[in-house]
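Anyone up for a design puzzle?
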């Protein structure tokens, strides 16, 4: 299997994981955050090693993240509850669900009121940062 096919499979893992966790909830959020944070850092490093330009590799590695994030913004920030498509809303939340613990901890550090949309946006931000740090680390190791 080519490196690009393997890389595509790696970026699908958060979506599959998010779906399974939402249905089964077999792993505690803290443990999930640690394991998935390390995994996502490694995925970022892996994408830095692809034999394409850094910009293309970074965008490829974040392609599903970008689509999922845009779907979330559309469904939860641009539409009201009555116009929301529940299937799209669920899918957009599955992708970053492994980073929900990060989002909730960061949100509670700045506010006594926990807002689901804010927590999810912070989780997306955390996911992006972890991938980015992994990507930068992978580029430094390649030099």
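Challenge accepted. My sequence:
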């Amino acid at each position: 299997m080519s490196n690009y096919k393997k890389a595509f499979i790696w970026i699908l893992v958060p979506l599959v994981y998010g779906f399974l966790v939402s249905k089964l909830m077999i792993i505690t959020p803290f443990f999930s955050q640690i394991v998935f944070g390390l995994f996502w850092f490694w995925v970022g490093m892996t994408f830095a090693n692809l034999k394409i330009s850094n910009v293309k590799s970074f965008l490829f590695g974040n392609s599903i993240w970008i689509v999922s994030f845009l779907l979330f913004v559309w469904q939860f920030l641009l539409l009201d509850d009555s116009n929301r498509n529940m299937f799209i809303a669920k899918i957009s939340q599955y992708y970053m669900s492994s980073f929900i613990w990060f989002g909730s901890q960061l949100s509670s550090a700045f506010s006594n009121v926990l807002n689901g949309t804010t927590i999810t946006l912070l989780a997306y931000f955390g996911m992006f940062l972890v991938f980015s740090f992994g990507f930068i680390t992978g580029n430094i190791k390649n030099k």
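A detail worth pointing out: The helical segments are 3-24, 29-48, 54-61, 63-78, 86-94, 100-110, 116-142.
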